[in-house]
Amino acid sequence: MIHAKGLARTFKTRSGTVEAVRGVDFDVEPGELVGFLGPNGAGKTTTLRMLTTLLQPTSGSATVAGHDLASDPISVRRSIGYVGQGGSSTPELIVGEELALQGRFYGLSNAEAQQRGGELAAALDLAGLDKRKFGTLSGGQKRRLDIAMGLIHSPQLVFLDEPTTGLDPQSRANLWNHIRSLNADHGMTVFLTTHYLEEADALCDRLLVIDKGQIVAEGSPDELKRQVSGDSVELSVHGGAEGAERAVSVAKRLDGAHEFTVDGESVRFRVPRGDEALPTLLRNLDAEGISLASVGVHRPTLDDVFLAMTGRSLRDAEEGA
Amino acid sequence: MRVFHDTWLIYVRSMRQSLRNPVWVFIGLLQPVLYLFLFGPLTKLFVQSDPAYAGKPWQTMFVPGILLQLGLFVFMGVGFGLIAEYRAGVIERMRVSPVSRAALLLGRVGRDVTLLTVQAAILVLFGYLGGMDAPVGGMLLGMLVLVVLCTGMAAIGYAMGLTLKSEDALAPLANTLLVPVLLLSGIMLPMNAGPGWLQTIAKFNPFSWIVTAERRLFLGDFSSSSTITGILWALVIAALGVYLGTRTFQRENA
Lengths: 321, 254
Description:
The structure holds 2 protein chains of 2 kinds.
Chain A: E1 2-13, E2 16-28, E3 33-37, H1 44-51, E4 59-64, E5 67-68, H2 73-79, E6 80-83, H3 95-105, H4 110-123, H5 139-151, E7 157-161, H6 169-186, E8 189-194, H7 197-203, E9 206-211, E10 214-219, H8 221-227, E11 231-237, H9 240-251, E12 258-263, E13 266-271, H10 274-287, E14 292-298, H11 302-310, H12 314-320
Parallel strand pairs in A: 3-8, 3-9, 6-7, 7-8
Antiparallel strand pairs in A: 1-2, 1-4, 4-5, 9-10, 11-13, 11-14, 12-13
Chain B: H1 2-19, H2 22-39, H3 44-49, H4 59-87, H5 90-96, H6 101-129, H7 136-164, H8 167-183, H9 196-202, H10 206-218, H11 225-250
Helix pairs in contact in B: 1-6, 2-6, 4-6, 4-7, 4-8, 4-10, 6-7, 6-11, 7-10, 7-11, 10-11
């Protein structure tokens, strides 16, 4: 559905040339729900704007929905849906009219556009709002209308740029369900950008992690997390620093245990499968007479992935951006 | 043809947008009439001293000037409207669709021409009611010149709005351009009432030629060289505006 090769874009600013995207290669297969994860300023939106014909690549090439981006942008436009960050309408216009007109931009007849608009409104919980002014909708309704506009011509591929930014948690969860259903029930290929870890984790089949204009990791959320070397185990022991030292020596006997850190009475380390290592660990600690106050196993998060790939956490990267 | 189909769609949307702001429609219609009643009578003395208007009421000179002022000022409002649409994501949504780029401009310009024509018609009506002595043919041709000018000024306004993308940048720039052009055009009072040096400078202002042509047309003069020159200038501005405007909508990052 998408084949990008060496796609790059530089911007000239007063302070010099900015390499927003430094040559990305990736493929998206039909029916996938792929997320582009990275901090603000990583190059997500720039890449998306290139793939949707809004921005010309400085170098590289891409095929989008079977059409070459450079030689046939009009066919690309016809085949894709795009929901930008900025919204889609102005406050004084009527929801139903805007939706139908959007269909006519894609060559639907008035009747077809009305019908398709009605179907989408029903599917996206917008039924009954068609006589309302855009400005009177709630944030979640506006966002769903933006998406309905992007889908009016039944594209096989839809791009969503930061779809849930600015929404409250409930609207966000609701929108995730809608996006999942587009993909699962309607077979639509979805390519979205996000800087929310939990969104990438909960929603996407596959992630492309981007930082400073380059793809630094690729895979399903689980695969990515497995690349980070294992689960983290956190022990809190009785017996002061000495107890902690003894616990470390016991834990070191576990296969693949590494990255030990000790802070007072608490010990932290990584091990490939925390859930499987725990029974052995507890038995051994018990045999050595070390008493535990608490124990916890944490699966790696995508933030750990980002940290492992780039040397900083996504949150720090956000603040630096 | 795609471009006509798309222009019509954008036109319909823009018209809806304007008509849904009835207060602005009302103010827009009222303003030229205010000029006519509150400022127009002051021009009486100048008109009487001009032999071309011998025996004609002041409206005959004043109405064509105010008409062109409307055409000139279109330029200011449209840029602001477009920046608001840009912020709302509307322009980007349309640019991702296969809609013709020229239509994105021309549909909006069509709306501006429509609203201006209604404003102008009301003004002309009040002019005639007040005794304006202008042949209907000349008046109609004058309206056509106004439409041509409005097309150019609106297109330039959109090009500027979409290039600057900020009201704070557009307002001072538009004012800086508009005020000297307005003062040196003889829209309010004919330039020939002024000293020679002022008239000389005004000769370099295309709008002063267009104003002259508009006034000549309202006097029933279709063929003098100053009428033709003004009409040509209006066409040049329209062509330039449409070229610049279409290019701006085509350009990336717009």
